[in-house]
Amino acid sequence: MSAGERLAGAPAPMRMWEGAEGVTIAGDSWGDPNGPLVILQHGGGQTRHAWKGAGQTLGAAGYHAVALDARGHGDSEWAPSGRYGQDIMVQDLKAVAAQLGDRPVLVGASMGGGVSLVAIGEDHIDCTALVLVDVGPKLEPAGTAKIQEFMSQAPDGFESLEDVAEAIGNYQPHRKRPRNLDGLAKNVRLGANGRYHWHWDPKFRTGRRDLGKRQERLEACARNLDLPTLLVRGGLSDVLSEEGAQAFLAMCPHAEYVNVSGAAHMVAGDRNDIFSTAVIDFLQRTVPVGGEPVKAPHVPHPHHEGPEGDLNDVP
Asked: Which are the contacts of 4, defined by CB distance < 8 A and separation ≥ 6?
């Protein structure tokens, strides 16, 4: 279930899978299906298209890159249950990974990074490596509030694509505003009221969010990591501070760290060249094409970390 019509020029998903609760998960893929599997998960309010450049670069390097639309986002179905918490998104990820049939590398930005960290830290999926993109247990409240404010604007939709472009430009002033607005077709749908709406379920915004409980859960997950791990931070980010990055590295001392100057929270979109180079360098050493991953396989033993109950992650 989703709202509104697909705009002309919006790319159709290359692949579809069945997620938890029977929700259809959409995605794109690049590279050799026999190459090491790399699953890319976007942040809240984004879509799989955030990973296009990185996915193409990974595919060209011999990896099987798969970018997913999270439930309720992009071309994936909206959840009839209204559930968009970490637990159900981990179950979606687990279902898709099982259908792809390989031990994946998980690459997650923001919300997708939280899902990836829970999936591995609570041992739901046997993975080969983890890449966290501008996310960690400790985030900056001001930065996360700014995202929430951006996602909450125009609840009745935008009158034009120019208005959509202006909203995005105000949120990302460090990026040049595109001259051609056709590319925005993948970010919005045309609603029944004739206005442009973001490509995600409004119910995603209504779930309970608690930064304290989130931090406690993800810190416990971070301490459990025993596989190759890379943290990539945007040097201009107001969501993950340098202090937050160092706090994660203290909990996971074997992790590698790259700080991408000139990039904000949307690291791959801001500096895909530097981001992709760093990720491929990391993977060539830890999950080489044509070789065995450094991390040996194991039988997962799923469990829960941190406070009881589920919660929706910050975008």
From this structure: 189, 190, 191, 192, 197
